[in-house]
Amino acid sequence: MSSSLSAQEPGSGAAEIEGLTGAKAERIGRLIEVWGFVKYHHADALSGRMAMDQQFFDLYDNIDGAGSMQESDALLADWLDRIGIGEPCNPCAGDNLSEADEIAIIQPTNSWIATLPEPLALRAKAVFENRSSAAANFQIEPARGVRNSQFFNEPDYKATGRDEPALRMLAVARMWNALRYWFPYRDVMDDPVSEILQPAISEVLGAETQDAYKQALARFTTTSDDGHGVIMAYRSAISPSGDCFVPYTWRFVEGQLVVDGLQSHSDGDLRRGDVVRAIAGKSVNDLAEHYGQFLSASNEASRLNVLSSVLMQGECGAHEVSVDRDGELATVSVEWLPRAESGLDFSRGPGRGGETIQALDGGFTYVRFSQLRRSDLDQLVETANAGSGVVLDMRGYPRDFLVFALGGLLIDEPVEFARFTVPSPATPGLFTWTDPIALQPHADGRRISAPVVALIDENAASSPEYHAMAWRAAGVTLIGSPTAGADGNVSTMPLPLDGAGMRYSGIGVFYPDQQPTQRIGIVPDIMVKPTIEGISAGRDEPLERALEELRSMKDEQP
Asked: Can you spell out the DSSP letters for 244-267?
């Protein structure tokens, strides 16, 4: 029996770090604030004439060694004197101010400048007032069409083989300033951006190993409270060791990790409805506490959903799994298998397997939306219109983007369903509203005439949430539980040392009336959650409720 599923040991937490005073973290924090401000506002930084990473390296050792905050601030004021304001702006960003009703999040710079000592505040204000109105610059370029931030000039220094405190702190500086200026949901983070910097500095500087450093940055990413927030390259440092998987699927239901019986590719003794209490000798509660600290999520249901997948991973071989079965504790041995041999379909979600479009009893059509492609739409229209109603199962991530292609088949006239907030390169930190996004009827008048309902839950994250907003506007009834609450095209801030990158939501997604979706998710019209009792009986309670709703709609038709 192997116990190698155990968690990789976490790096030293901020509270355990010795020898790093709060004053030192405060000095480095000021450096990161002022340097990031200059990077995204100063004319020479925006033109690429001033190499901002080198400026950081040149300043870092002096700030690190300063004997006081006053000495550190004097060094920064001297630097601002040396770089001046750069080439005079023409036109200037201040000449093109957004109207109040266009602003979703105000820029943070004026209020930040007001907190600085006067020598720094005066110099920072001069730089701020000289910023250009250009829509793109050397540091940031909006993505075509959607306009989320793109960062193309962030060297990773991987080829140099360097690993030193200044480079590690440059990673924190890039990440924090990305959240400060280019994150559309900073106003709904649990902790203000200003309060997450110094703890991150302390933990990163106290990390004694590469894994501890990666874990520290992963924890910092979670402070965004964003389901898109992740450093993909660091997964090996924040996941169970090993490349194999339990050949069963399980998920958190009613706060418990439950074997759902949807996919089982082993002759082991785990049964549908088993409540997992321990894996390889470690309690699920302890494992959840450890791995959960590295998972960025917009809401708790989404975090638990990701966590259930994380706990499926481990080293190849047999592991003891303790379960609560019918009120009694049992321990069974389960063989963790290589991914290819596990037979698991990680994209399936909790819905039915099988064909993409399925005929159910009663003339109802069931659609595995995660598998649906544009090429399937003709068949869907034909099948749906020959039946009594359609269930779109959105509990998973789609392979195709069908908002407008399928949405146009659900309506007779244009209907607005969303609007975005987008960043302003000319005024970092400012996010403005776009015009509403609308569905348009299919050009040839085709449409699905049968009633349509859609199933949603925490498995619907990002793209399926955007789809669900469109379906709701088109009159589709949403059934299930709230979605993951993480929508918006992803931006990636490249990091030094290893070529990794911090991903996060780069634009804000809202309803047309400016009501939010981030962290809240798409809330269903009819709330139905699975239960342990239902799973034990092999029932899909949300699907049952969806079919019940379609029968009711059918009965109401003339």
From this structure: EE-SEEEEEETTEEEEEEEEE-SS
Please state, in angstroms and rounded to a whole number, the distance separating the CA atoms of residues 171 and 57: 12
Q: Is 111 helix (H, G, I), strand (E, B) or coil?
A: helix
The pLDDT of residue 349: 85
**CA–CA separation, 485 and 225 (whole Å):** 10
Task: Decide if pLDDT at 555 tops 90.
Answer: no
Average pLDDT rounded to a whole number, residues 317-339:
94
Count of helices and strands (H, E) across the chain: 18, 23
Collect all residues with Cβ–Cβ distance below 8 Å to 153 and sequence separation of at least 6.
Answer: 48, 138, 139
What Rg do the C-alpha atoms of the chain give, in angstroms?
26
Question: Is residue 168 within 8 Å of 213, Cβ to Cβ?
Answer: yes
| pTM assigned to the model | 0.93
Identity of residue 170 = L
Residue 458 amino acid letter: E
Distances (CA, A) of 118 to 33, 70, 121, 211, 367: 16, 12, 5, 41, 63
At residue 189, what is the residue type?
Answer: M
Q: What does the pLDDT look like over 273-302, one tens digit per residue?
A: 999 999 999 999 999 999 999 999 999 999
Is pLDDT at 2 greater than 80 in this prediction?
A: no
The structure tokens listed for 25 are: 């973290």
Q: How far apart are CA 260 and CA 233, in angstroms?
A: 30
Q: Which residues lie across from 423 on neighbouring strands?
A: 431
The DSSP-derived string for 355-392 is: -SEEEETTTEEEEEGGG--GGGHHHHHHHHHTSSEEEE
Distances (CA, A) of 279 to 20, 336, 529: 37, 11, 26
Rounded distance, CA 306 to CA 295, Å?
8
- Which DSSP helix (H) or strand (E) runs through 314? strand 313-314
Contacts of 433 (CB under 8 A, 6+ apart): 101, 102, 103, 104, 419, 420, 421, 514
Residue 75 neighbours by CB under 8 Å, 6+ apart = 59, 62, 63, 66
pLDDT at 130 over 80: yes
What lies within 8 Å, CB to CB, of 255 at 6+ separation is none
In whole angstroms, give the CA distance from residue 164 to residue 174.
Answer: 16
Q: Are strands 477-480 and 452-456 parallel, antiparallel or unpaired?
A: parallel
Kindly provide the b/e burial profile for residues 281-310, where b requires at least 16 CB atoms within 10 angstroms of the residue's own CB: ebebeebbebbbebbbbbbebbbbbbbbeb
| Structure tokens belonging to residue 76 | 């920064």
Which of 22-31, 114-123, 158-167 shows the lowest mean pLDDT across its residues? 158-167
**Statement: residue 7 has pLDDT above 60:** no
